[in-house]
Amino acid sequence: MVQKIERDVNRFRQIVRGRIKQDLRKYLSHGEMIGKQGRDLVSIPLPQLDIPHFRYGDKGNGGVSSGEGEDGQPVGPGQQGDGNGQAGNSPGGHILEVDVPLAELAEILGEELELPRIQPKSAENIIVTKDKYTGVSRTGPDSLRHFKRTYKRALRRQITSGSYSADNPIIVPIKEDQRYRSSKTSEHPDARAVVIYMMDVSGSMGDEQKEIVRIESFWIDTWLRSQYEGIETRYIVHDADAHEVDEHTFFRTRESGGTMISSAYKLCQQMIAADYPTAEWNIYALHFSDGDNWADDDAVCLQILREGLLPNLNLFGYAQVNSPYGSGRFLDALRSRLSLVENVALSEIPDRDAILESIKALLGKGR
């Protein structure tokens, strides 16, 4: 019975996984589920899923029969109605919310987009130690007592000695029965990673553009976290000036005025110099904008990228969100000068349906 249940559960998981892969573009383009994310799980709404099984009809409804009849004649006691009947008492279709681990979502994303695994920068000079509880010991503190193992040892001892009574099944562990979790300390290189998100919040970036950025950055985050054990995120917003904000402010700030993209790149460069030694950190800088920029600022941006940022980054990604108020000119400037640079990835996002292709363009280099 246990094996059958496990088999059915695994089959259900495969069905859910297949449904998510089938509708991945839909899930990527909708932001509702992002608000439901917990620490490790995301609730995804799926149509009700049933594992195929035989269903028996009600008794007395008849079965297979033979006799005279005409095409279209109803079979059995039911009669065709006129569509004006009363409300029924049978269940209809339902939406089932399935909790899916973020790690599994990242795996599905990687499979569908054929994303290459990231090879982190060498961090052999940074050694971290981890304690992993992998064994059982006869000694240890009470806080690490393994209750199940202790109970089983006591039960076995009482059965063997003949002191166990099925009529009075009391199990009393003694000192020799006690078992404790034991840990093993391991050392391994630590690959640290930071993602610095930058976004244009000038008046030409509307709510829809920011929602697209929010959705895409969530999936990028999900993938990068599957590649690194620990990851930091920093957020920069800019119009004609740039400043660091928290995640909540990043997606909800709206300002007006001109746009100078170089202000964000300068602040990003200062962050890296102050907090993230490039020999120890894997650094990702991702910039979202509608492409508007002060005309004389393009040259300044390119200079900062070439001399200050690109030599220190695993990846610089620029994603341009189409806006009815933005010129979209900055993407052309980057394409003409940096499209062949190995750690530069550029993408254009005309609408939500293009988020999937944009993610692949940004992460497809596997850096």
What tags apply to this protein structure?
two-stranded antiparallel ribbon; alpha/beta; Rossmann fold; 3 domains; single chain; 34% helix; 367 residues
Characterization of this structure:
The structure is a single chain. This protein is of the alpha/beta class. The chain folds into three domains: 1-50 and 95-114; 127-187, no CATH class; 191-363, 3-Layer(aba) Sandwich (Rossmann fold), CATH 3.40.50. Helices cover 34% and strands 21% of the residues. It is built from ten helices and ten strands. It has helices spanning 2-22, 24-29, 102-113, 147-161, 207-227, 247-250, 262-275, 297-309, 329-338, 355-363, and strands at residues 41-47, 95-101, 127-137, 180-189, 192-200, 231-238, 242-245, 281-289, 315-321, 344-349. The strands form three sheets. Strands 7-6-5-8-9-10 form a six-stranded mixed β-sheet, sandwiched between helices. A two-stranded antiparallel sheet has the order 1-2. The chain is elongated and about 90 Å long. The two termini are 47 Å apart.
Number of strands: 10
Spatial arrangement of strands, main beta sheet: 7-6-5-8-9-10
Ends: how far apart?
A: 47 Å
CATH topology heading of the largest domain: Rossmann fold
CATH architecture label of the largest domain: 3-Layer(aba) Sandwich
How much of the sequence lies in strands comes to: 15-25%
- Characterize the largest beta sheet: strand count, sense, and whether it forms a barrel: 6 strands, mixed
